[in-house]
Specification:
Length: 262
């Protein structure tokens, strides 16, 4: 009798074609091919699972950017779930695999310090756990080198509406006006990095000579195909997806997941 083909639900917000979504998908798909799994994109897996009462569960496991609703349904059905979202609201309750953002922050600071910079700043959303970790690493490295780092925030989702966009523009402009060039800056994403470049140009500041910018994520279209190019961190999200699938595999085999995130 042939072995049962495992069915894996994937919930990764794939409408956003960023590496932190699509790269993870590619990595877990590589593992799925190696194991002969059947992977199913279900961006509303929590809704798929909600009405099930004593019926056959359609999945053997889930890999997701997990939120409360999904965690609740997976726990109710005792369905193995692996989270791949560093800012997930249930990251402390669900076995997780994600990039080491604190290490990324430290490496960003090391890079800027090695260029001889002595003034530093960071710009991030206020409530993202991943970016809080990155700024923690960045500021710690700067402080240990004997310098200070200004930290300002802008809206979590500047693209949500006009008001949020204007708030982001204003926050970035205020920050730029308070800097003493040359300054090394960590910013949470490429889109805001581009907005920062524009704000610098409006003040007559050169990038990178006066303001050296490191973006958290390396999306080549935004980082490399405009001038000036943006320096950015490359996380290797395919590995995150592959290791998440490996963890899910162990859980489906009945093994206990690690107590701490990988």
């Amino acid at each position: 009798m042939p072995a049962k083909v495992r069915r894996i639900a994937i919930m990764l917000d794939l409408q956003w074609p960023y590496k932190r979504h699509a790269g993870i998908y590619a990595g877990l798909q590589q593992y799925a091919r190696e194991q002969g799994w059947y992977s199913i994109i279900d961006e509303f897996a929590h809704d798929t699972l909600a009405p099930l009462r004593g019926k056959a569960v359609p999945y053997d496991g889930i890999i997701a950017r997990a939120h409360h609703a999904l965690y609740k349904q997976a726990a109710r059905l005792k369905l193995p779930l692996v989270n791949v979202w560093a800012s997930s609201p249930v990251r402390d309750k669900v076995p997780s695999v994600y990039a080491d953002f604190e290490a990324a922050g430290r490496q960003s600071a090391e890079h800027l310090l090695s260029r001889g910079l002595r003034n530093f700043a960071a710009l991030t959303p206020p409530q993202a756990a991943a970016q809080a970790a990155a700024v923690r690493g960045f500021r710690r490295e700067v402080r240990e080198a004997g310098f200070d780092c200004a930290w300002a925030t802008f809206p979590q989702n500047p693209w949500r509406d006009v008001a949020s966009w204007r708030k982001a523009e204003a926050a970035i402009q205020r920050s730029v006006e308070g800097w003493e060039p040359p300054v090394g800056v960590y910013i949470s994403d490429e889109g805001m990095g581009r907005l920062l470049v524009q704000a610098c140009h409006r003040r007559g500041l050169r990038v990178p000579e006066d303001v050296a910018i490191i973006s958290c994520h390396n999306e080549e279209t935004l980082c490399e195909h405009q001038r000036p190019a943006l320096t950015a961190m490359e996380f290797g999200y395919e590995r995150v997806g592959y290791e998440a699938a490996r963890m899910l595999h162990l859980m489906m085999e009945g093994e206990k997941p690690p107590d701490a995130p990988v």
